Amino acid sequence: MINESLRVVLAVIVVFSSACSTADVGNPEIDSGLPPLDNEVVARGAELYQAHCASCHGNDLSGEDDWRVAKEDGSYPAPPHDSSGHTWHHPDDVLLEIIRDGSDAPQSRMPTFGEKLSDEEILAIIEFLKSSWGPEERAYQWQVTQRGGQPSG
Question: What is the DSSP string of 37-78?
Fold first, then answer.
């Protein structure tokens, strides 16, 4: 009787331990070493994005048409923030700075948001942007963030 009970307990332990060890297999964030996105922060970032960013960058993060072509005044249209744009090329600290302080590029029309949004709110917006990127873009952006803006060569 004890032998049978022990066998059942061991079987249960094996099943649970193997389930736990494979629970994260196939999750690209965990498999690639990417930090997982916080769903609550992403949701807050989505709200903030709609309130402060969508009027220029689009409700769906698609940006303005022909965002790579200068307008007559030399400024550029608002770029997309999804995988089709270039936002994911920049490390987190640069994205935070651009949103907070605006862009110092003369052809940019990016305003400052530092008086309207806290750094924490801006980081929530960045987390929301990341949620729209594919795994390759997320991995690249995480890499440049970890390397202080420099991709591996």
Answer: P-HHHHHHHHHHHHHHTHHHH-TTS---TTTTS--TTS--PP
CB contact at 8 A, 44 and 95? no
CA distance linking residue 153 with residue 147, whole number of Å: 11
Q: Is the pLDDT of residue 21 over 50?
A: no
| More confident: 144 or 28 | 144
Q: Going by C-beta distance under 8 Å and a sequence separation of 6 or more, which residues neighbour residue 124? A: 41, 42, 44, 45, 48
User: Which helix H or strand E contains 149, and what residues bound it?
Assistant: none
pTM for the full predicted model: 0.76
- Neighbour-count burial of 56, counting CB atoms closer than 10 A to its CB (0-12 exposed, 13-18 middle, 19+ buried): middle
Q: How many contiguous H segments (helices) and E segments (strands) does the chain have?
A: 7, 0
3-class DSSP state of 17: helix
Question: Measured in Å, how far apart are the chain's first and last C-alpha atoms?
Answer: 63
